């Protein structure tokens, strides 16, 4: 069976205030064409269809059009909700859509109810694990505790139990939206840390023939059978070195697997330039970036006059300007941002407590309270969604 694995469309998202709607439409055109060109049997979308819980109408129209074209092509699509999506809104009409071959999996309670498709070598069961917010799904899944590894393990235990009840030779594909250890994050993903832990081990998914992951925006291989497709478009300058692709997976008899990357269209390349303003304006080696979206980091000791206007004359698509003066580490003017670089919210809060107490940091109990508060803030959107 030939599977096209994609994720993290983030329909409705902009790039530094530049609308990405046209680029997203071009990607969806490319997706439908790739389905035809490569004789794809099924499309899997591993979450973050939209960029926010209540997407703009333009994004909903893009999504609606894509589903109509995939259905018209006669190619089944299996799709899960991600942490940016509203699971309830995305799942509206799922029963009716399934009749057209569009299978939405947004309810954690349905994780062990697969979409079963058949090829010449037998059945393939597709299990959809939507983004599982630990605090919200722990009890429903019977997880041992409210952590990402615990709730995903509980969900996969249900998947393995269902798979064991199916005819011998049934192959399995699991869709999941999670941060799996070994994956490389970027600045574009929303933090899903709970209890100080974000990543889960790939071994959670043992038993599946292929695991189609979403959440991280770089296309990457965690293990031979566990892969991220990445986002089809770049949504931050941290993705400037990404090759944006989808995975074309051939799943043969006995679970044999062959993977190939299918490139996505690039609306405009990204460039991260760093140095004194004069160097960025005069270096002939930078001319190749004239047509790129540019993030310029100026290292001048003093802020130059009209830097953005001057940069735009040479690089008309400059979108981001950062000031990072190069100073000696002992310089008292070294920026606060530099001192915080590489430190997470928990560490910053603990350092602040130590500062106001004259060097005495928080106790173990206070650290637990701080972590719980940060976790509550991160799940706030999900809690609001349930209450609605």
From TrEMBL:
<dbReference type="InterPro" id="IPR041796">
    <property type="entry name" value="Mre11_N"/>
</dbReference>
<dbReference type="Pfam" id="PF12320">
    <property type="entry name" value="SbcD_C"/>
</dbReference>
<comment type="similarity">
    <text>Belongs to the SbcD family.</text>
</comment>
<feature type="domain" description="Calcineurin-like phosphoesterase">
    <location>
        <begin position="1"/>
        <end position="218"/>
    </location>
</feature>
<comment type="subunit">
    <text>Heterodimer of SbcC and SbcD.</text>
</comment>
<dbReference type="InterPro" id="IPR004843">
    <property type="entry name" value="Calcineurin-like_PHP"/>
</dbReference>
<dbReference type="InterPro" id="IPR050535">
    <property type="entry name" value="DNA_Repair-Maintenance_Comp"/>
</dbReference>
<keyword id="KW-0269">Exonuclease</keyword>
<keyword id="KW-0255">Endonuclease</keyword>
<dbReference type="InterPro" id="IPR029052">
    <property type="entry name" value="Metallo-depent_PP-like"/>
</dbReference>
<comment type="function">
    <text>SbcCD cleaves DNA hairpin structures. These structures can inhibit DNA replication and are intermediates in certain DNA recombination reactions. The complex acts as a 3'-&gt;5' double strand exonuclease that can open hairpins. It also has a 5' single-strand endonuclease activity.</text>
</comment>
<keyword id="KW-0540">Nuclease</keyword>
<dbReference type="InterPro" id="IPR004593">
    <property type="entry name" value="SbcD"/>
</dbReference>
<keyword id="KW-0378">Hydrolase</keyword>
<keyword id="KW-0233">DNA recombination</keyword>
<dbReference type="InterPro" id="IPR026843">
    <property type="entry name" value="SbcD_C"/>
</dbReference>
<feature type="domain" description="Nuclease SbcCD subunit D C-terminal">
    <location>
        <begin position="267"/>
        <end position="355"/>
    </location>
</feature>
<dbReference type="GO" id="GO:0004527">
    <property type="term" value="F:exonuclease activity"/>
</dbReference>
<keyword id="KW-0235">DNA replication</keyword>
<dbReference type="Pfam" id="PF00149">
    <property type="entry name" value="Metallophos"/>
</dbReference>
<protein>
    <recommendedName>
        <fullName>Nuclease SbcCD subunit D</fullName>
    </recommendedName>
</protein>
